[in-house]
Amino acid sequence: MTSIIELISYIKSFFFIFVTGKQSNFAKLSIFQPNKYKFKKTCPLSAKGAPAVDYKNIRLLKKYMSENGKILPSRITNVSQKKQRELSLSIKRARNLALI
Predict the structure, then answer these.
(1) 20: left (phi over 0), alpha (psi -120 to 50) or beta
(2) Domain residues of the chain, as ranges?
(3) Reduced to 3 states, what is the DSSP secondary structure of residue 55?
(4) What percent of the chain has pLDDT over 90?
(5) Phi, psi at 67, each rounded to 5°
(6) Architecture of the domain defined by 42-100
(7) Which of the four, 14, 19, 56, 60, has the lowest number of CB atoms within 10 Å?
């Protein structure tokens, strides 16, 4: 099964080279190759020497808020799920106490 797929992709890339005279970057990639460029994102609040998440640490909390005062999602800030919950709770506490 895999040899048939590889053969088909080889024929497609050969046809593309024959028609255009160039080899595309997509033709060089294979489905079966491991992804070399995938890297693991590390949480900036879980690393060694990271500041503690606290509602009194306004400077830290403002880094994870937008200009409008909304909490930034973890997919943008790369914060882990556990620390994102702590962060959102601290931001909400600071809002209630009018620190932010």
Answers:
(1) alpha
(2) 1-33, 42-100
(3) coil
(4) 50
(5) -65, -30
(6) Irregular (4.10)
(7) 19
